[in-house]
TrEMBL record:
It comes from Exiguobacterium antarcticum. PANTHER family: GLUTATHIONE S-TRANSFERASE KAPPA, THIOREDOXIN SUPERFAMILY PROTEIN. Residues 3-203 form the DSBA-like thioredoxin domain. This is DsbA family oxidoreductase. InterPro entries: DSBA-like_thioredoxin_dom, Thioredoxin-like_sf.
Length: 227
């Protein structure tokens, strides 16, 4: 089973959704699932060096006061806490995430995508770190088990930029307008950080369909092989 997850590291519900999916997989005892993170930028125009704080950006986006934006964010903090995530929204640096998505592509090629994605989410929402800073990205990748010199060389290049754009184009083709967005075996989709039960239901359905397909294939097999 393959689960493709379009998300952005600046999206608080993407991290929550990631944890809920992982919990559903664990509770369901699914062992044959591959989770692949796909690139999606909530704000491709976000500056490399932030000029406004998170609350100012939210206030401008939703036409509210900074104080109201803080109140809105507290609701997100409470939701995250229920899933074991301790968000520090006051420390968030709302920088451009394109380079972080490039790093995810690099990590994917070296079998460290999940570890790097986890590190990026933690850096953004819990440690108040700039995900457009090469030194921070290098540290995250190194802690995930990637070779420092290779990471530094990668970040100084434009490598994997095309892959990021291709995945963003794919999201548009699928009609994805917001994240997180989960696609299961290219058959079923879940939009948003839905409850664990919602993920469990889809996992169960896909597993049942796979069992039916295996039985059908077995029925088509005779002594000399399968038709």
């Amino acid at each position: 089973m393959k689960v493709e997850v379009w998300s952005d590291y600046a999206c608080p519900f993407c991290y929550i959704g990631k944890k809920r999916l992982e919990k559903a997989i664990e509770e369901n005892g699914v062992t044959n699932v591959e989770v692949e993170f796909k690139s999606f930028e909530l704000d491709p125009t976000a500056p490399a060096q932030p000029t406004m704080g998170l609350y100012e950006i939210l206030a401008s986006k939703y036409g509210t006061s900074v104080e109201q934006a803080q109140t809105m964010s507290q609701g997100v903090v409470d939701a995250a806490k229920a899933d074991g995530l301790m968000y520090e929204m006051d420390r968030v640096i709302p920088a451009n995430t394109f380079k972080a998505h490039r790093l995810t592509q690099f990590a994917k090629k070296h079998g460290k995508m999940d570890e790097v994605s986890e590190g990026l989410f933690q850096a953004y929402f819990m440690k108040g770190e700039n995900l457009n800073d090469d030194s921070i990205l290098t540290r995250i990748a190194t802690e995930a088990g990637l070779e420092t010199a290779s990471v530094e060389a990668f970040l100084s290049s434009d490598e994997s930029s095309d892959e990021v754009r291709q995945e963003e184009d794919m999201a548009r083709e699928l009609g994805v307008t917001g994240v997180p967005f989960f696609v299961f075996d290219r058959k079923y989709a879940i939009s948003g950080a839905q409850p664990v039960e919602a993920f469990s239901q889809v996992l169960d359905r896909v597993q049942q369909e796979q069992k039916v397909e295996i039985v059908a294939e077995g029925d088509a097999c005779g002594v000399d092989g399968c038709n």
